[in-house]
Model the fold of this input.
Amino acid sequence: MNEEKTIMDYDTVALDEEKNALVIIDQTQLPYHTEILYLTTQKEIWNAIYLLQVRGAPAIGVAAAIGIYLAAREIKADNYDEFYAEFKKAKDYLDSARPTAVNLSWALRRMEDIVTKNSDKIIPEIVEALHKEAVEIREEDIRVCKAIGEYGLTLVKPGDGLLTHCNAGKLATVKYGTATAPMYLGQERGYNFHVFSDETRPLLQGARLTSFELSQSGIDVTVICDNMSATVMRNGWVNAVFVGCDRVAANGDAANKIGTSMVALAAKRYNVPFYVCAPTSTIDMNTKTGKDIKIEERPAHEVTEMWYKKRMAPEGVKVFNPAFDVTDCDLITGIVTEYGIATYPYEESFKEIFKKKAEAGGLK
Ligand code: MRU
Done:
């Protein structure tokens, strides 16, 4: 038996209770180096999110929850109002690290609610309540992703060819990933999927991260360039597409890694079902449509220089580098959540999903 550790044995994002640190795998170093970072200051945590050392919507949310708890521990305040003012400053700072993934503000808002609900308590008790909530947000992510995997698995059959874009895997969450959750559960149950992983320009999350974690788990995975997904679909090699998501608008328009909408368009053309896997924390009912989603734009060097020995575009040429795009809701066959699979028209379907969520009072 191979006793060697694989990437699946490391925590993507965790709290080190002794060091009082946010622990992450530095994803910018993967797949070559598995470097574990212990982050204690707000600046370090902000940078880790901005630089994509920790990335993927759910993982960013968990990192922010742990990050704001660590910040709260350090606040020196004589009374609740002073504490709350400092907490808000730290929260707004972390919230500014990346704009598109709603899980960041969702987790921070959830942590803020803990502060306001406990305003009658002494500060150490509020900090302890924050600690509990950060741990719970992390644990919940595991349960949520597993449930997404179970629903996702009902949509496919053994031996299927699947395609995914970017990394919505273990490295983007705490354990199973969202888009990869059906793949991991299927692997445990002998489904023998064949997965195509788009390399995902410009930061190569598919080539560096998805193919890495899937292959380390023994799943059959083939990396393709982003411009090859239509070909594999046309060849009949793909039975379903599963992608993750950074923010779903109330009408079902879904923002995910740049290039996702092209995959959805090709899938429509070749009659391949296109599923977005999204925890309910990624559904933003306050954002009406995809037009209202703020899309992060990143520096030009990611397109022109990164990964190349020599710069691959002339000096001074203009570059457009949006990190995400929006897939129109009518291209999405289903949105797989931890409370079931929503379908078009999504406004109606989401009502049912959130009703189920309210009735369940949380996934145990
Ligand atoms: O820029 P990234 O690497 O954070 O983008 C990640 C994605 O687009 C993922 O697909 C998304 O966050 C879902 S992760 C479960």
Summary: The CA atoms of residues 268 and 331 lie 7 Å apart.
